[in-house]
Amino acid sequence: MSIDKKVFDIFFNENKHLLDYIPTEHPIDEENFIKWINNYTTPELKSLASLFRKYTRYISYSEYINKIAALCADIRSKSIDYNRIILLIPRQIDKSNFWVTLLHYNLINDIITDIVLDNFDNYQNKKLSDKCLGIICDDASYSGSQMYYNINGWYHVKMDILVSIPYMSSVAQKLLRKKRKNIIYSSETEIFYLFEDNLKSEFIDDKPALNIAKKYFRDLDVATLYFNHKLPDMISIFQTTYIFGYGLSQKKRKAKLFNYTPLSLIKNCDLLYARDFKLSTLDDNADIQNIVGVSNMCPIPFYKLFEYRYKNIIINDIQILIEEINIKPKIFNISQMKTKNLNKYLLCTTNFLFLLKNININTISLSTKNKFDKIYIHISSLVDYLKNIESNIYYYELINSKLQSINNIYKII
User: Fold this and answer.
1) Strand ranges (E), 174-333
2) Same structural domain for residues 44 and 70?
3) Using CA atoms, how far apart are residues 267 and 299, in angstroms rounded to an integer?
4) Average pLDDT of adjacent 10-residue blocks, the chain of 413 residues
5) Which pLDDT does position 374 carry in this prediction?
6) Residue 202's domain spans which residues?
7) Are residues 137 and 72 part of one domain?
8) Is 320 a domain residue?
């Protein structure tokens, strides 16, 4: 489904200030890293742990933003060969790829001609003669499986697709190169290697040392690169090691190998491991975010906490930019609304909240009771949903107050 660019611009301009947010930096904690290395009890494992530090890399916020700017400059240079530039907008607004797509849009919105939601299959080219370039963005690619899945589904798309990703693993690069010839990759994308590949380059002539690493360390085919805007999930990186100081071995507290002491290898994350999250029972492969919650993650994925608005209403789904039905009057008279239009209007939460805010209570009468029943049900369920959500306290108070006023009338009807 396509999104009207004018409608999307209204949304973007209302939320553009969120892109100015500058988070706390979370570089490598060198002092704690030394302590962590010394927790290993054998010279061989200490040496391997030192290599883990050698290949750990932190991407600061400024470095990341500069990389996005370079990608956008590359997109701009490639766009001159096309008549239409189509930007794909992810559906889930609390994901990093949505945030990164907005960062791109901020720099290239003047060359974007069309916007499509979620899938390039949804784009309907108006002129067959147009040469089209589709753009899909993501914050990073570790395994490449998600992007591979997306691209694999676009068999019938008659356009070139530019994949704009600032950092990509060599594994993801190899996987994505298997796809069709109409997939374009930016020359500004930086390729990084997984820990296992780095160890292989270190021990190219020392297979016994590499075998020790494979024997005592778990899942070496993960990355040692993390960002200021998030610590990737357990499948992509050693989460429990970076946050809680667990060992890389299969048995994190096996006394003969590793003397575990709680510490974070990332600066400004000390409060996280100090909290009581039952560390003694935490599995090596646990996804920390699911345990401690988004607001307790470190680095915090701040983009997940953004409150996006459309026409001053907090939204949680970009779908409403398509669903929205504009009704001009600012004061609504329910008796003048056809039942069919009312039902369709209430499907969109944004429209419903706007109607609720501006509804004229005095227009409710016995003749409109059937229509009013529908609104009353929506109000009641919305109150129950919003009353425990702190971020929506304004709407809860508004709706609850309106509900109380309507209750008095409802009893009379």
Assistant:
1) 183-185, 190-192, 225-227, 309-310, 313-314
2) no
3) 9
4) 89 96 94 94 89 96 97 96 92 93 97 86 61 92 84 74 94 80 88 92 80 78 92 86 79 64 87 57 66 83 93 84 51 47 48 50 46 53 48 49 54 44
5) 52
6) 30-56+193-303
7) yes
8) no
Say yes or no: 266 and 330 in one domain: no
Q: What is the dihedral of CA 168, 173, 179, 182, to 10 degrees?
A: 60
- pLDDT at residue number 405: 56
Cβ-based neighbours of 341, under 8 Å, separated by 6 or more? none
Q: How far apart are CA 37 and CA 210, in angstroms?
A: 18
Global confidence as pTM: 0.76
DSSP-derived secondary structure for 160-214: EEEEE-SEEEHHHHHHHTTS-TTEEE-TTPEEE--HHHHHHHHTTT-HHHHHHHH
Q: Which of 143, 61, 132, 155 is nearest to 100 (CA)?
A: 61
245 phi-psi bin (left φ>0, alpha ψ -120 to 50, beta other): left
Please count the other Cβ atoms lying within 10 Å of the Cβ belonging to residue 367. 11
Q: What distance in Å separates the CA atoms of residue 63 and residue 77, rounded to the nearest whole number?
A: 21
One domain for residues 153 and 267: no
Handedness of CA 199, 38, 279, 263 (dihedral sign): negative
d(CA 123, CA 135) in angstroms, rounded, equals: 12
Number of other residues whose CB lies within 10 A of the CB of residue 1: 15
Rounded Cα–Cα distance for residues 206 and 31 (Å)? 30
Q: Which two tokens stand for residue 3?
A: 């999104």
Position 80 scores a pLDDT of 94
CA distance 79 to 83: 8
Closest by alpha carbon to 244, among 295, 296, 294, 195?
Answer: 296
**49 and 198 assigned to the same domain:** yes
Any idea what the CATH number is for the domain that residue 149 is in? Answer: 3.40.50.2020
Structure tokens at 126: 């108006």
Residues 35 and 76 in one domain: no
- Identify whether residues 204 and 130 lie together within a single domain: no
Residue 301 preceded by cis peptide, ω within 30: no
Same domain, 12 and 153: yes
- The domain total for the chain is 3
Asked if 241 and 212 count as a contact pair (C-beta separation under 8 A), the reply is no
Task: Fill in the amino acid letter for 167.
Answer: Y
Between CA 83 and CA 50 the distance in angstroms is 52
Amino acid at 296: N
Please compute Rg for the chain using Cα positions.
26
DSSP character at residue 24? P
